[in-house]
Amino acid sequence: MDDDDAARLIVDDDEDILSLLTQFLQNHACTVAVARRGEEMFSLLETQAMSVVILDVTLQGENGFDLCRRLRATSSVPVIMLTAMGEHTDRVVGLEIGADDYITKPFNARELLARIKAVLRRSETPAQPKDQRPMLSFGR
Q: Is the confidence at residue 63, as pLDDT, over 70?
């Protein structure tokens, strides 16, 4: 599945979910990066190209909705919210703040893979780390 060098970034503080998703995506030829906290996510996004962020809504001591909002303010990398919060309102809020898709736990790994592929089809290119983005200048 990996048609580029950009990684799929999984942001979750549940070691079982991280292990399951990492193994599943690697078995489908994906490069995977993991973060357990928001600041770790932002640090990885500054240094590595990521094609998609799979972001848990309920990280210990952090709010995935707030992290998505912060991420969306500086990056166009696609975001799939992953959460046990399956209420209609939660899904709508996630999409309104900038998530590209939303999937609830428990989830089918093949469905998540299909959603990742769909999000990647809709996105133009992977988000580049800040130090690799082209600079535009105007004037003389």
A: yes
